[in-house]
Each structure stands twice: as C-alpha cells, then as structure tokens.
Amino acid sequence: MSRRPLAVTACCWIVGSGMAYLYNGSSLWLLCAGVSLLCPFLKLIGHCSWKQMLLLWLAFSLGAAYWVYNDGRNVSHIPEALYAGGATAKVEELAVFAEGTIVSAVDIDGDRADFTLALTTIRVNIPVESGQKATGREKGVAGERVMVQLRLASPEELGIAAKWGRGDHIKLAGSIASPATATNYGGFNYREYLHNKRIHWLFKAKGASALELTTGTFTTATFFGWIDDRRYGIGEIIGRLFPDWQAGFMKGLIIGLSDDLDQDKYDQFTGLGLTHILAISGSHVAINISLIFAVLRLCRVTRERALLIVFWFLPAYVLITGFSPSVIRSGIMSMLGVYLLRRGLLKDGLNVLSAAALVMLFWEPYFLLNVSFQLSFAVTAGLILFVPLLTPYFKWLPQKIRGAVAITVAAQIVSFPLTIYYFNQFSLLSIAANLFLVPVISVVTLPLGTAALLLGMVWLPLGQWITYPVRFLNSGTFMVTEWLNGLPGFMTYWKSPSLIWILSFYGVVYFLLYSMSRRNQLDLASTISALDDTVPLQPLQDHDNRRSTLDVNSRLVWGRVGLQVMLAGCTILLLLIGYQPVNSKGTGHVQFIDVGQGDCTLMTTPDGKNILVDGGGTVSFRKPGDSWRDRKDPYEVGAKTVVPLLKKRGIHTLDVVIMTHGDQDHVGGLQAVLEHFPVNSVIMNGSLTDSKTVTKLMSTAIAKDIPIYSVSRGMLLKPDERTTLEFLSPKPTENRTGEIPYIQEQNHESVVFRLQMDGSSFLFTGDMDEAAELKVIEIDNQTPSPPQDHNIDVLKVAHHGSKTSSSQAWLTYWNPVMAVISVGASNSYGHPYPAVVERLLGQGTDILRTDQNGEIQMEVKAGELRVRHMFR
C-alpha cells in the first residue's frame, strides 16, 4: 500500500465498479456491507494502518456508488417526449422527426450510412406551425444519442452521404426502433452494447432525402469533424503510397484507420493473436516517441525542449489515431511519464498506469466494460509485473533479444484469459508469430511506413521510393501469416471462462513465477556464499549448529519446491477445466439455435459427441445491378452466429455434420463451420443442387479430406451407447451410373431421422413436404410396429411451419409432446402457417418457436427432458 497507493486505490475502485455492474439493488448493498465487515480481517493480513484501510474502503465504495449513479442516469427520455407531443401508438410505429448534431464519423458501407446523432429535439412527424416551440418534455431529450441507420436509395446517393461528417447539424425524418437483444445463449447483445455507449434507440431512415443539413454553432463535435477530415486526408496519402490491400493495412498500422482493411488479412491476424498490431496502443506511441527523440537529437535539441515537444505531440497523436481506449490509455500514461521524467519523479510505472485508469473511469465508467480498455490495461500491468519475473529464464539469450522474448511471453500470458473470454480461440502458434512478426513490423515496417508518409506529404515520389522495402516486408508478412493459419491442429477453441477462473489463473501464475524467482535468488545467494573465500573458519564445536542450519535450509528449499509443484499443478488443472466444453459428459443436449429464417441444431450426446444438423444461411434477394449495395463484410449467419456460438460453447470438433438438403437457408452457414472447425464426417441426402453454395461446400469438404456419406431410409448411426439416429427418408434409389444426381427442388429429398437419446425421442424433418410424410407413413405401415414406438417427445416442424408439410396424418402418426418451429421473426413467407399451428394445438402439442422464444435448449437424461429458452 505504501509503495503503490494509486495502484491499490485503482484496484479497489475497479472492484467496486465491477461489483455494482454485476449486482444491483439489495444484493449490491449486502455485498458492500459484507466487504465493510471484512475490512478488519483484511487489515490484519494486509499489514496496513486503519487510515490506509479507510482509504481503500472509500475507493471501493465510491467506485460502486459512482457506477450506480451513472448507470441510473443512463436512461432514455425519447418515449416521454413523443407521448408528450401527442403520440398514441407504439413508439416503433410512429413517424418521427428529429434534429441534432452528428457526433461520430459517418460509416458508409454498401447501401447504408451509419452514425451517432446527439438530439436537440425529437417529435412525432407533424408539421410544426410557425413560431411553435418544442415542449418541455421534448427539450428533455437534448443531448440524448441515437444510432442512425440510413438506407441509401441509389448509387448517386453515395456521393451525397460522403459529404456528411461529424459536427454537421441535421434534420432527419424516419422511425425509431429498439436495438435487438441476444436471441441465443451467449450470443451478441446489440442492445447491451449500445447501452454501454449511452444509446437506447435506433433511428431508421430511407433515402438521402430524409436528411437535411442545417446551420449550427461550433461544437466539440465540429472540432472532431475537422480532425476526421485530417485523418481521412492522411489516409488518402497512404492510399497513394501503397497499392491494393497494403493501403488498408498501412492505414490501420499507422493511424488506426480500419475502413479499408481487407477482411481476409484481418482474419489472418486475428487467428494468430496479432490484431493488437492494428490497434494503436503503447507500442505505437513508444515507437513514434523514439523516432521523434532520434530526430530531435540529430537536430541538437536540448533534452528539456525535446520532452516538451513530445508532451504536446502526444495529444495530437491520440486525436489523429482515433481516440480509442487503448490509445487514450497510452497517451495519458505517456504524458504523465514525460511530465514526471522532466520533473525527475518517474519511479513506478504501475502507479502511472493506475492514475490513467482512474482518470478514464471517472470520465467514462463504461470504459470498464470495453474490451480494448481491459486488454490494454491488463497487458500493460502484466508487463510491469511479469517481465522482471520472466527475464531470468531467458538469460541464455543475447541481452537485446532477452527482453523482447520476456515481453512477448508476458503479454501472451496476461492476454490469454481475456482473449478466450471474448474471442473463444487461441492459436498455439501465437507466441511464435508474435516473436517473429511483431519485431519486424514494429521496428522496420511501422517506422519506414511513417517516414514514407511524412516524406510523401512533402513530395509524393520521394515517399513512394521508401515504400518499396515496406511493400516487400508486407508481402512476406502475410505470406507467413497465411502459411501459419493453414497449418492444421494449432487453433484451439475455449468456452468463455468465469470471472473466478480468470482471477484464479492470474493469481496462480503470478505466485508460481514469483516463488520461482525467489528460489532463483536464494540459489544465487547460496552460490555466492559458497564461493566467498573470505568467510572466516568457524570453531569445530559449531559443526552441529551449521548442520542444523543446513537442515533448516534444506527443508525450506524442499518446501518451496513443493509449493511450486502445487502451483504448477493448479495451473494445469485450471487449463484443463477451462478447456472443457460447456456441455458436460453424462447428459445429452439438443440445442435449436436461432438463425432467423433457417434451421440449425447442435446435438451433444451423453458421451460428448457433437452433431450439427444444418447451419442456417443468409438468403439474398439482390439483383445483379445492385452490387453497389453489398457491404465490405456482409452479414452471414454461419460466420456471425453459428461459428461464434460453437466456439463460445467450447466445441473442439464436430463428429458429424448433417446437411438435410441443399437449400441456402439450411446449408449456407455450414461453409464457415467447415472452414473453422475440424469435422470428422458429413452426411447428405445423396443429391446435389446447382448452386454456388453447395458446390463450394462440397469442394471445401473434399479439400479438407472430410468423408462424405449419403444416407437413406433404413440406415442407422450410433454415435454412442445411448444415442441412435434412425434415418427415415429419403428412400433408397438405384444409381447404376455412379453419378450424383442433381435435383433442384430439394425439400422432398430432405434427410429425415428419428433421434433416440437416453430414453427420449426427437424427429428431425428438414424441409420435407406432405408427399414425403405420407411416403414415410406408408412404408412404416407396411412393416407395422407397436403404436408406442411412433410416439415422440419432440418434433422439429418441417419447413419452418409451411403449409406444404406437417399434415394432420403426420402429426397424428407421431403424436409429439412438443414441437419446435425454427423460423425468422417477421419473415416474408408468413411462416408458421396458421393452419399448421392450429393442427399442432389441436393435437395437444406444446409449441416452441425461435422467433418468439429465441434459442431452445433441451437437456436429456434418463428419459427426462429439461427445457429452457431465451424468452418466455
């Protein structure tokens, strides 16, 4: 406490804020009371005074209170303003008129322009008579922010939208809607994401004509708009210096502008844990400061003046590189460091880091939930604490390399828990990639690229000459990243660990390294003592005392070794626990994932085998002439929903992937699944459809040597002793040519199977039609079986509840207890068909729907089903 008061205070503030975020109401106050009662005990084990303990208690309490205060104020007044203005319908159904200031950069992607609008007023879109003013309640929304999503109507409107910028005062007509919440367990919650940015509503408008620029006064947003113009201007120069994808990469590397970053290149960096290179952070600041100092030293500028120049350079650099939490952190730390260095007071980097954290959290408490903020501060603190403990283990390396290796290893250790929590993946090649690529990029590519930019601003051809070695290095860098990403077996997937697991990991690893460093120091001291020939001879009668001392030292050494073995064992145990999937063995699970208008089901057998039935798919109705509407990274349900959920649930391998048929809304998402996960086998219906999706999917499976099996009625699949898949359709066909038939209409050919799992039965039907249903019943009737064999617990309703299936004969034959309809909310097909719903209800079947209930999960054990779903 006495050595690092700011560090301990910041920790207590963060703990208080974190507790206020996790708990609320009486739970929070009971927790605070418990912490208060524990203070005397903490004082005893912490060896601090009552005054210091009171200070820490105040930091904890103020952190919690400050969070509660800010979160309590983070509410929307828009509904009150609209209803005060005479609205009577639901807020989402109103035509709304708003005025305000654009307070973010305008992001134009395809046919959509997105930006944040700070309101001055909002009302129902009724013409305001001359002289009429906004009501008091309308004025209450002043300053509230909304996320604007404006759909452009034509390619010509792209040029109009390009003129909009931060600081513009506008009038806007449209409607408002509540942001979507997560519909799958562990899925992305857009509503919560915007809430942490103090945004509660989406403002949707159509056409550039819905927005009108107006005049207004100079604001802070206007200043940031001017900064945006300078930033984009620098980006244009980089675009003229570097070709194609390299321009986007260098924009991200030098000024943190990721608008033109190639998605494939970004994915390569993400897979190897190298994305921190593209996020402006402490390393970028340090490199630029070093360059400035080197130039100033060549110009014979005094140390005092050089520090002053660097001090004022830092805020300009923070502004021009995007003002993200990581660059704000590094900027504040660097400015404090330069100031303290100039005053001769710089002693402890951890206190400087803590001061930066307190400043940022006081300014915006929601930074605590920002991934960039967490990674930036955690890694920086980890480097301060872990590098001194790790450096002695690399003393066999040259001195200049030793520190770089220790920094890389420490950064990987510290970032690992947060990486798997948020991204659910970790490459075993990450350390190697960081060791070999980061120095090249940081020491050569970034400085040369910056130099090329500065000279290019003066004379473009001169800058272009310097870019040649940088282009060569960039090509080599991505050749290496592509090769490393292509190596199989090195990517591991982890479920999101609990907070207790994360804290335990940090604590155990730190104490393990600390105890080992203490042992090394003791061993070194013993060696020095043994080699010291100036120690006087002791009398013979002290022999027993010396022997006793040696015995005590020996016991201490062995005790320390035992402690290290125990800590190492705890570390391994934590890793093993963290690597286990969410669904434990011994219990079966069937999870109907909400993929909108499509099908996707993840089944985990009691022995831990994973079976994925379909993968959803994004259906596009774009015309060939509408390519201008396409986005740089378009939404694809497999890559954006299915794959992240599988990772978050700790799925390491898919034993079976079943393609019920070749329609886009069932197999489109499987392409991303096959690209990311090891798949042991693919099961299909024995026919193909002439579509790019199916062709690419089959090519990927063949390229990855994944066995592909065709199934038909009468076949069985037994993944484990308690699970059986009995295939009921399609019927076997004679194919003497050996060629796979192409059938465009795939619904009738859907793979249909009955799943028997630990005493419970499920029927999966794909998109089978009524004719296929009657055929299954007819064949079953020809080989009669006891009536009880036909009863099933759960029916996955065919074709999203379409009228072409789920006939009365089919429902009567199977008599399901529950039915699951996988269907998109407000879909244009009118699914599920009302007559189908009526037939199910008439059968006495409970209906669950993904559009109303979100993801539906069923736990199977000893013939009993436990059901839960996202929404009631």
Automatic annotation (TrEMBL):
Catalytic activity field: 3',5'-cyclic CMP + H2O = CMP + H(+); 3',5'-cyclic UMP + H2O = UMP + H(+)
Pfam families, per the entry: Competence, DUF4131, Lactamase_B
Compartments where found: Cell membrane
Membrane-crossing residue ranges in chain numbering: 28-46, 53-69, 306-328, 349-369, 375-394, 401-423, 435-460, 472-493, 499-516, 556-579
Its job: Counteracts the endogenous Pycsar antiviral defense system. Phosphodiesterase that enables metal-dependent hydrolysis of host cyclic nucleotide Pycsar defense signals such as cCMP and cUMP.
Sequence ranges assigned to domain Metallo-beta-lactamase in this UniProt record: 597-825
Keywords linked to the UniProt accession: Cell membrane, Membrane, Transmembrane, Transmembrane helix
Membrane topology: Multi-pass membrane protein
Protein name per the record: DNA internalization-related competence protein ComEC/Rec2
UniProt xrefs under CDD domains: ComA-like_MBL-fold
Principal subcellular localization: membrane
